[in-house]
Queue: 2 jobs
Job 1
Amino acid sequence: MKRSPILVLLTLSVPAAAAPPAWTVIPAQSRVGFAGTHAGTAFTGSFGQWNAAIRFDPADLGHSSVTVQFATATAKTGDTFRDSALGQEEWFDPTHFPRATFATRTITAAGPNRYVADGVLTIKGKALPVKLPFQLQVNGAAARMEGSTTVDRIAFGLGAKSDPNAQWVSRPIKLTIQVAARR
Amino acid sequence: MSTDRVAAGSAPARPRSRYSAVAIVLHWTIALGILLMVPLGWWMSDAVTDPSQAARVFQAYQLHKSIGLSILVLSMLRLLWRLTHRFPELPQHMPMWEKAAARASHILLYGLILLMPLTGWLYVSAGWNAAMNLPFPAPTIWFGLFQWPHLPGLAEASDATRARTAGAAITVHAWLAWGAVALVALHAAAALKHHLFDRDDVLARMIPGLRPRGPGPEGA
């Protein structure tokens, strides 16, 4: 897993003694998906390649953080039309924006095994605050996380010129994150 | 009888009494395509601005593009076939002006079946929704099977160039649609006139299974 400068900075800024443990994602049991409607039909898709740097300790949320990078070119829905469109400048524009990122700023507890990650989602160079509520089960050295949130595609410039009124593609896009990780 | 057949098969100068099977299949396949495409095209270009029709309009555009590009390939085959194979001559009884009109209308029909798909292809390649004047780079998936490439150079062009190209292409495309209606009506009317009034074999030689009227080389 290649570390971005952001990740190195994040890691360095956390005092070693207080650092929550690092978690490694198990890709086969993890998925970052998205869902919406196109031309009256519901679609779901996912990112084929992404990586996450997770430092998490339920007892030390103040020092916990998650940074995720998505390879925008690997967003696939299984439909030739949609997948071709996603690779265009009008949608994910992977040529100019090969990566989308999500980085938490704060993680707060919201009940038993429930948390809310308050972070910044950056797609096509547009960084916007996103709240991601999630559930987390820690079982010794293994953890399972599930969360979802809905974003407005227009705010990130996705199909903003070709479909500003959501005639074809819904403005709300639901993001679903399922992660299995081990320490 | 057998010598007659051998002679017919080996004499290149002798005209055919019927169109070849390839020409007949291409003719009727393209004809069916045109009959589907004109109403489909008119409906969808009206409905494209109606958000409540989005699902059907999306399917209609993909279908229209798939049929249209198929017509383009079939039309190129047809033109190639026409240029490399013998075809029946016009009946002797036709006056010169009728022969000239028939040739002209056939040249126009060939031009039409090539230019309609080409202007449509140019329009979708420009990736611009002319009806709503916004960029619209919709891929073309041939009958849902594979992505048909768009004409090069336009995807990277400026918005102004794409808008201009799309506007010109769709304007010509729409005029050609009217031309198609007029020309196909004339073509069908002429074929019926030959069949019903002139009572020659002009229509029969393009109908599968029908034998030409009168004593032709194979009709004797």
Note: Chain A has two helices and eleven strands.
Job 2
Amino acid sequence: MRAALHIAGKDLRQRLRDRSAILLAVVVPLALAAIFSVLFGQASTPRAFRYAVVDHDHSRITATFENQVLGMLADRGIVTVRPMAERQARTEVADGSLDAAFVFPAGFAAKVQSPRRVAVQVVGSVDQVTATDVARSIARAYVADLNAARVAVAAVTHQQPGASPGAVAAEVVGSAPSLQLADVSAQARVLDTKTYFAAGMAVFFLLFTVQFGVSSLIDERSDGTLARLLAAPVRRTEILAGKLVTSFVLGVTSLTVLVLATTWLLGASWGNPLGVGLLVVAGVLAGTGITSLVASLARTPEQAGSWQAVVAVTLGLLGGSFFPIQQSGALLATLSLATPHAWFLRGLADLSGGVGDVLPAVAALLAIGLVTGTVAVLRIDKVVAP
Amino acid sequence: MTSSITATSERGEPEPSSVLGCRGLRRCFGELVAVDDVSFSVAAGETYGLLGPNGAGKTTIISVVAGVLEADAGQVLIDGVPMRPAALDVKSRIGYVPQDIALYPDLSGEENLRFFAALYRLPRELARSRVAEVLDVVGLTDRAKDQVKKYSGGMKRRLNIAVGLVHRPRLLILDEPTVGVDPQSRNAILDSIERLSAGGMAVLYTTHYMEEAERLCDRVGILDLGHLIAEGRPRDLTARLGAAEHIVITVDGDVERAQKAAETLSVVSGSSHDETDLDVLVRDAESALPAVMEAVRSTGCALRSVTIQEPDLEAVFLHLTGKRLRD
């Protein structure tokens, strides 16, 4: 297989002299990872919603809301809560110091114990849509609980005429917070923003980088040099192997440089080097298999280039290179498992549990590479033909 | 059109001393029969020309001989050993220079040569000396370190040939190596080929330039529509035309009509035309000229010039096929 190494050496030398290849393999993904990290980094870092409670009623019911309902959220770091006068609250919401304020009118508790309708006013900032929506949802849920309590009071006093409606209502409303927080952590563990976009861009551009290997066979056919290789004492399998070696070296080099560069320049945290190394090798093999398969179906360099771009972008989007695909529903999350991107990102997330946890993702990547690469190799007579 | 020359391709076994022997080659592309029952041989130190217009099958034969394509039928022997695409030892005896420039433009001339020297398994030191040697042969020593994309068209052509020479092949295959080359580079290329042949290398050369074939080739095979229709030494082939001569008339008018008029004359044994020139074959140009000119004039064409040429391979091809080599 010395001929394969000579061919790979020649190809790599050509690629090194081709600045567009270096741009595509390293510079562009690094730049995009940096841009995405800056753009989405702040948005992805959760900030506690800043709420105030304006209590004109000073009842046990309003105290329950402030201390237990909002207090529980405050304990989890989801909100901050301050009691405040109404004028100050409206001023702070207007100037952006507060996200929203809950205003309980005087006589609120009395209304709860009567057939009259009760309402909590939410004053929200127009610039903080999410925080205001969350505040409205909290208020709506609390009012719904109060209405449920009112029904319960009516039922108890009907059955027990001597019972005090106020005591029953206070008992029901104060018995449990109206919001229940459940742990809804995702099935897959989540990468921090910088690492996510660094990895996403790295694996997205990987498919463009490794295509320089096998696709160059089509270029050689078009340029006439493939006929020259076929006339030389070189086996067709050696020619194909040379191109695969080129893809592999380019892919591993590109990913390695990106791992190091994003770690040092962007502060990405890739995890255990051994696990990352396994994912890099498996990811490159998967990418090489896919681009080889696409190249084996194309007849011209233009066809190969456009098909590979379509495949790379589609798989990148579906695989979650640009946004976490798990947030887009179960169907897309399931479909994403057909892409090397999803397995690469999942493997990195799993790496926080130890190197052993990355093995399923590595196995999936190797399987993708094996299946696609085998089909491409079986088409060798089409690929390595004058 | 009538022909007084009989195709004379030699269809027996290749000579025992032949470097290249082809027997009954046939190659199809789908329904198209590109090459059919072609046999010829080339001896050491001999330059054999495959002569024919575009589409005659020259490049297909070259590709089969070089092991790039496999024949559907027939056999190629290199030093008596059958050539197949997987016959690596046989391939190492051949130097292949394709019709199109097949080089890596981002690499230097020297790097291109070293890469192919490595593929032909030359040891590193030997490769270094061979690279220097062939760069000298093609006159590119001074530009060896420059990237090929900075070379002129003629320099690329010369390097294209150098790649085929770097491993000192027994058989050098050149597929129209002078297409698009300036006269100076063309002469340099032809000089190099003459020297290589004189050094004992067998050369298989395709061209549709008859003057190149006449200068370089010890023997030529004339191809038309995939068939070898005649073979022999250039002078023998032209001699078979007898005392035939060309009358080339440049006309202003309907040249096709002029050709038809000329062909009605009994003294005309063949004819062809392009956009302006009518080319007729006659046994005695001097005596036939007045009748030919009169026939052309009778069609309403004006005569711009008249030239009488000695018999050559162009005339042979015209006589055999009714077509010009460069059609």
Note: The two ends of chain A are 21 Å apart (CA to CA).
